[in-house]
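Whiteboard transcription, Tuesday session. T.W. wrote the structure tokens on the left side:
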């Protein structure tokens, strides 16, 4: 894994008492040159950054030191963490990808080297390796359905629930919402398939049940949700 340092001015000290407990994966939705420009531009009205950027050839760019808070999460939340932004609680990795094609083998190799090292340094649980879509499902869809989370989970980078028994009985939206909220999504058990529930369900399927993206509210997905929630407890 080739590592290059390209410092970004877009960072801040982490909030007092905070430390990295999440690892968040993104795609840039643009090419490498523009990705670097956006992530290191300190003159824009809306500066953004990430700790790392992984090019299509696997080169890893270190933009912000892990001790600092990079600006990659935006308005976001997960579980019991205060709603607002998870920047101060996370490490962000951007992957060069437009969101409409598979990631390269070189990018996977870099992820398989970089992520476990980050997780070990900061004691980040596999359950806290998430996509941007998970923590901001109404706003974001990255890293998209082309990322093979199953391959990453084999190395402890994220979690893939194993559900061999399909959910029994009628599908209930409130039960779905309770499971999503238990996992970490910001969902209220209203019994109505509201935008938050629909977006959160799609984010979960994108990461944990990609073969069901065409039919997210089904017995198979409910079984995956239940297995994931049980593994957390």
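and on the right, the sequence the group agreed on:
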């Amino acid at each position: 894994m080739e590592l290059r340092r390209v410092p970004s001015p877009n960072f801040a000290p982490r909030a007092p008492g905070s430390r990295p407990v999440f690892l968040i994966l993104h795609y840039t939705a643009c090419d490498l040159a523009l990705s670097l420009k956006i992530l290191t531009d300190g003159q824009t009205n809306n500066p953004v950054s990430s700790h790392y950027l992984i090019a299509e050839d696997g080169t890893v760019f270190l933009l912000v030191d892990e001790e600092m808070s990079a600006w990659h999460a935006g308005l976001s939340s997960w579980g019991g963490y205060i709603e607002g932004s998870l920047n101060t609680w996370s490490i962000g990795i951007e992957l060069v990808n437009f969101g409409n094609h598979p990631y390269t083998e070189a990018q996977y190799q870099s992820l398989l080297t970089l992520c476990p090292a980050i997780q070990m340094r900061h004691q980040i649980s596999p359950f806290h390796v998430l996509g941007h879509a998970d923590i901001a499902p109404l706003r974001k869809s990255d890293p998209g359905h082309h990322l093979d989370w199953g391959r990453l989970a084999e190395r402890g980078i994220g979690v893939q629930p194993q559900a061999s028994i399909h959910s029994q009985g009628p599908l209930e939206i409130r039960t779905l919402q309770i499971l999503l909220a238990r996992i970490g999504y910001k969902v209220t058990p209203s019994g109505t398939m509201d935008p938050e529930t629909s977006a959160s369900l799609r984010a979960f399927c994108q990461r944990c049940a990609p073969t069901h993206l065409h039919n997210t509210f089904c017995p198979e997905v409910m079984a995956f949700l239940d297995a994931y929630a049980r593994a957390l407890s």
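Someone added at the bottom: The chain is about 30% helix and 15% strand.
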